[in-house]
Amino acid sequence: MSELLRVENLSVAFRTRGGIVRALETVSFSIARGETVALVGESGSGKSVTAYAAMGILDPAGQVTGGRIVFDGIDLTEASEREIEDLRGREMSMIFQNPRAALNPIRRIGTQIADVLLRHGNIRRADAPAEAVRLLAQVGIPDPARRSRAYPFELSGGMCQRVMIAIALACAPSLLIADEPTTGLDVTTQAVAMDLVRDLARERQMATLLITHDLALASEYCDRVVVMHAGHVVESGPVAELLAAPRHPYTARLLAATPRPGIALGDLAAIPGELPDLRRAAAGVCRFAGRCDRRRDDCAGSLPPIPPGPLHDAACWNPL
Amino acid sequence: MTALLDVINLQKIYPVGGGGKARGQLHAVDDVSFSIAPGETVGLVGESGCGKSTLVRLLARLHDPTAGAIHFGDTDLAGMKARGFARRPERAAIQMVFQDAGESINPRYTAFEAIAAPLRRLRGLRGTALQQRVEELADATGIPRALLGRFPHQLSGGQKARVGIARAIAVEPRLLILDEPTAALDVSVQVVILKLLMDLRQRLGLSYLFVSHDINVVRLICDRVIVMYLGKIVEQGPTAEVLGRPAHPYTRALLSAVPELTLEPPGPRPRLGGEPRSPINPDPKVCRFFGRCPDGRPACADSMPRLSPVGPGHLAACHFA
Ligand SMILES: Nc1ncnc2c1ncn2[C@@H]1O[C@H](COP(=O)(O)OP(=O)(O)OP(=O)(O)O)[C@@H](O)[C@H]1O
Ligand SMILES: Nc1ncnc2c1ncn2[C@@H]1O[C@H](COP(=O)(O)OP(=O)(O)OP(=O)(O)O)[C@@H](O)[C@H]1O
Ligand code: SF4
Ligand SMILES: [Mg+2]
Ligand SMILES: [Mg+2]
Predict the structure, then answer these.
(1) What pTM, to 2 d.p., does this model score?
(2) Interchain contact, B257 vs A259, CB within 8 Å
(3) Is the CATH number of domain B5-261+269-280+293-316 3.10.580.10?
């Protein structure tokens, strides 16, 4: 499989009043064409920052302080704003967590889809409305011609999310980044939306980066998993292998805290401690050490790197 | 065992429509009956908008029901007006913990003040007695005393959830209603909060009504489960029964949509397409799930299925269950 996105030693820092937040440190992973990769980890681990950096939409307070993001052979950290603007929306697009907030409340949804098509697609103005209706039908919206004239508030949360998917897929991107796309949706609606993304991805050989808290969701829909903790990639590998035999103590702890059939409350265990303060974290060493029960003296040494790629790897001095 | 809470034919209808004239009746909770035994944990599940929050707000007497009875111990709460209920002694016996603890705690209150408020209002505690009781509650819920002076924005999600629980158990309720108390928490913090709840249940003999979207969490802590669909209970029974042998087509669709932590790629699973029917002026003769139901037949539009036994303590409302 050929590589589409390669994130290499990416570091991102935010300037805040309380000091510099080292949100990402030497993050590396890759996604091949047509592959679905999950990015998992606790709240605050850096999943969204990774996605925003890849899309070139970091908050102005944030800065890429090191590393590269290579998309289809183009180094985005060197590319001009125009080049990135052109890729974004056409070649790579993103679905955000809150679909209603991401849609323009005073524009009809069909018009919003047409806008995207006209901005990025090869389409005549006269054909855009019909194409928008076709896209709504494709994401399973009943009565798409009528619905294309609706405003976002007239649609349920599940339908808004499908509209977001339709917009994200309007220009047939080769990479879709979905940041917690189903948070706030019912599981029944989540299943329909995720099936839809998976089926469209298969049909078009589209690569997907699925950001989620939910290991079960990752296990059902993804080929590989990248686990983040406190701004580091701590483990990555093929989904079945990583879940069956996690190597990083953090991944093992995360699994041991996840409710699932056949496991009683007494069998579940919380992860000790809390995420370290990213303003004070020492550079280049394991950020899980303060919470880890497998820690040894050499854990204070510089972190074993995880190279981007499909192999199963853990950034740990004493892996399981 | 006599029930702690006995809800009979409870109904809440909201008038909807513009211009001051009600043009429709939105059946948010429709003819709902169930009971909760002392010490029991009952889960309440169902999709967004099915009426879970409306139901628990009726029970906590934050809203007035349109019809029906709420027997709690020896009193019928349904007859008491929501207005003024806050000052009645029964108020203390049913307490609620809301989904986003951060939002339900006043941002200008310290953790201490948040826990102290119901003690002042309902128990009249002041001074050292108040101080002692708040510290006792902080200890019981695992809040370090040093954090009591902090404001909500200075607390983590898990700490805020603990404050919400400490505040709710402060006046020694017999029933605690939890509306998605762990939905905003990471799995690791969720484990801690669930264990705390189970520990408190045992020590204080509490009953819980636990509203959740997460079937895997319901499975962990609930003795019984109630499944709602568009204002009605469509299935209820012991957790193992309902989750292991779901009798209603909606429950089956719900369970098959729950992602599983699997090592093998999952096989094809039935999906629930379409949208629910409108809750406004629903036809009293048509099953609320008809039209979306994979098993629906013409009979389903001729008469409303009633909750009937399908197993020990297990009821379902489907003509073909
Ligand atoms: N604009 C910003 N200014 C300062 N710090 C920020 C900013 N955006 C993110 N951060 C910090 O970067 C870290 C990673 O945040 P990020 O939003 O990527 O987490 P996440 O893994 O997406 O979490 P969640 O699961 O809650 O969405 C956090 O410590 C966060 O506080
Ligand atoms: N004050 C109100 N006026 C009119 N309709 C209302 C009101 N409150 C709730 N509803 C309606 O009652 C129905 C039930 O809503 P409710 O909030 O109880 O659902 P829920 O099951 O708690 O959903 P969620 O899982 O999204 O919290 C919905 O159709 C809702 O729109
Ligand atoms: S009564 Fe009919 S429509 Fe209703 S749930 Fe059963 S099979 Fe489906
Ligand atoms: Mg995020
Ligand atoms: Mg609700």
Answers:
(1) 0.91
(2) no
(3) no
